[in-house]
UniProtKB/TrEMBL annotation:
It is a multi-pass membrane protein. It comes from the Bacteria. This is ABC transporter permease. It is found in: Cell membrane. The keyword Nuclease does not apply. The chain crosses the membrane at residues 7-30, 36-55, 60-83, 89-107, 127-144, 175-198, 210-234, 254-271. GO terms for molecular function: transmembrane transporter activity. It comes from Streptobacillus felis. The lineage of its organism: Bacteria, Fusobacteriati, Fusobacteriota, Fusobacteriia, Fusobacteriales. PROSITE patterns: PROKAR_LIPOPROTEIN (PS51257). The keyword RNA-binding does not apply.
Amino acid sequence: MEALKIILIQTITVAPPVLITAVGACLSELSGVTNIGLEGMMLTGAFTAAVVNYFTGNPYLAIVCGMVVGALMSLIHAVISIHLKGEQIISGVAINLFAVAVTSYLIKVIFKASGSTPAASNHPNNLLVIFLIYLLAILSYFLVYKTVFGLRLRAVGEHPLAADTVGISVYKYRYIGVILSGVYAGLGGAYMTTVILSSFTNNMSAGRGFMALAAMIFGRWNPLGAILASLLFAFGQAISDYTKASGGSVPQEFLAMIPYLLTLVALVMFGRKSRPPKASGKPYEK
């Protein structure tokens, strides 16, 4: 029972980066814009939070700054996808590649080091941050399915022409959906460098943005489903971490694969059955 208790606590602790990013992915997709760039938005959010926390000693300001940078990165994707009607997948991949390069470069420029930033000395109230992230994720479900805003957001992702005909601004709601996804991804990244760790290392998001997309698909584009899927992936991570710490005979390389294997299994089992919003990934022409 003690082992199960430790694993469950670890699950709740490690889930937030993927969980909140997956909820953000739902908001973007439900508005009709595919956001593959979540990995890059998490990475830049994590880097920004680490730098701000190191220089100011204020982890809460660091988290907010991480969210702002995530929003700015998503704004770039929104302009390319919505106004310029560019290829959304290519835009997202470009953001991911840019994030890896720019964070690595800035570590060298700012800290005259390579690979990681110095550790910050201050941490937020971890329980408070975890609680607020879970609360935000759950409130996002009610925002999508219990409010007029959510109805309009889903309308522009399903039938943008019909929504436009009745006076709903397709561009406005798509911008909001994409920017919120960036804010959430930035928050997920900031969590990694303020709560889980106190510093940034190159490419530390380690595919969590893509795991968030898998959680979104597993959860059938529903924020609540994405939350549950993220908790499943985190449970796999917690089992892996616990087994490593307890010195089991299972090779560590295999244990590190567990969360990613769960992601692949989820996609294989549920990917075909899941139906995205009808206009997802399709630029809207007025």
